Amino acid sequence: MRIRQCCAVVALAALSAPAAAQTAAPSTGAVTLYGVLDLSMTGTHRDEEGSSLALQSGVQSGSRWGLRGHEDLGGGWRARFQLESGVVANTGRSAQGSRLFGRAAWLGIDSPLGDLRLGRQTSVSSAVLADFDPFLASYLVTGAQTSLQPFNANRNDNTLAYWTPSAGGWRAGVDYSFDQNEPRAGSATRSKVMSAALVHEGAAHAVTLTVERADWGPGSPHDLGMQAADGSAKPYAVSLAARGKIDDLTLYGAWSLMRHGSTVPAIQWPGQSVYYPGSTVHGVMLGGAWRVGAGSVLASWQASLPRDGGALARQDATHNQQVLSVGYAHDLSRRTNVYAVLGHMIGAWHDAGWRETQYAVGLRHRY
Asked: pTM of the entire structure?
């Protein structure tokens, strides 16, 4: 049934483009079919559990297909949309909980007054932060999202988002999710998420300040998770990140303060927790990407630093965790590349002696 739905959407887009051109000649627009396929051999090693090897989808970039388009409305105004479906390429199944368009489904207006979008979309905070990491908040545990939880892609339902026009290199964005569509027991209160970002971009540098906050509805799975951690609070995070380019070398640095828990609790990295009411965790990352011919050498150090107090102190989970990462990506063509990454985790919040190593060798194609 899902395959027939996907085929119907693609066929409708292909057939509607010429029809729209005939019936609305004054307007100009375009619809693009695009996608990414990313597959790799990945391995994990823990001292107490041994090693494992598997074929995995989406290590560098989440495998996907999508449709995006726009229509020129005149006077610098455009209608825009995006429908994007995640794919688990090694099995052919849909990602994001088997949603048809789990990665994005939004409609908006782009104008001299800014960019307005309505629908399911990535939060402005996490969308910005991915560009401030040499591993682009991806590549298993090597990406900054491991220690700096706000770097995880936070895709929210029922979201209204707005970006200002750029002025002197400055722009700002804000979004608000009215309802996360979570099941909730005995309450009509919905789970809500908001974020905001301030960005300055120059010719060879960029800096951003972001904030993200979640309000889990009573009885929702995340509210129950907070209660199981012996508390109830509204998690939030503040992040500051910068990058600078010197010839072929780009340097990155980032810091996050995370309070009460992760604002993206669906994603939990090894050796950590996502619910920690009353506790604060600091995340830091330093890294670089060096362009060498058709390839890029990647490296970073990151750490998550739980502070005393709250749920983590009661659980004796205040040990620091570090991640040392190296990688290489090589372009075979404009659309196809190979990559290899390795990340070594030192310590877990609950066990200072814990260790884990993850690695991958993969192939990615974009169309």
From this structure: 0.89
Are 238 and 125 in contact, with CB atoms under 8 Å apart? no
Q: Where are the beta strands (DSSP E) in 59-101?
A: 64-74, 77-88, 93-94
Please, what is the Cα angle at 114 between 110 and 117, to 5 degrees?
Answer: 55
Name the residue ranges covered by the structural domains of the chain: 2-366
What amino acid occupies position 256? S
Residue 14 predicted with pLDDT over 80: no
Question: Coil, strand or helix: which one is 362?
Answer: strand
DSSP for 114-179, please give it: EEEEEEEEE-HHHHHHGGGSTTTT-TGGGSGGGTSGGGS--EEEEEEEEEPPPBTTEEEEEEEES-
Does residue 238 register a pLDDT over 50?
yes
Q: pLDDT tens digit string along 153-172?
A: 999 999 999 999 999 999 99
Neighbours of 335 (CB within 10 A): 11
As a whole number of angstroms, the distance between CA 155 and CA 126 comes to: 9
CA 358 to chain centre: 19
DSSP structural state of residue 11: H
Q: What is the pLDDT of residues 250-291, one digit of tens each?
A: 999 999 999 999 999 989 999 999 999 999 999 999 999 999
Taking the C-alpha atoms of residue 63 and residue 17, their distance in angstroms, rounded to an integer, is 26
Which pLDDT tens digit goes with each residue over 56-98? 999 999 999 999 999 999 999 999 999 999 999 999 999 998 9
Identity at 78, one-letter amino acid code: R
CATH code assigned to 2-366? 2.40.160.10
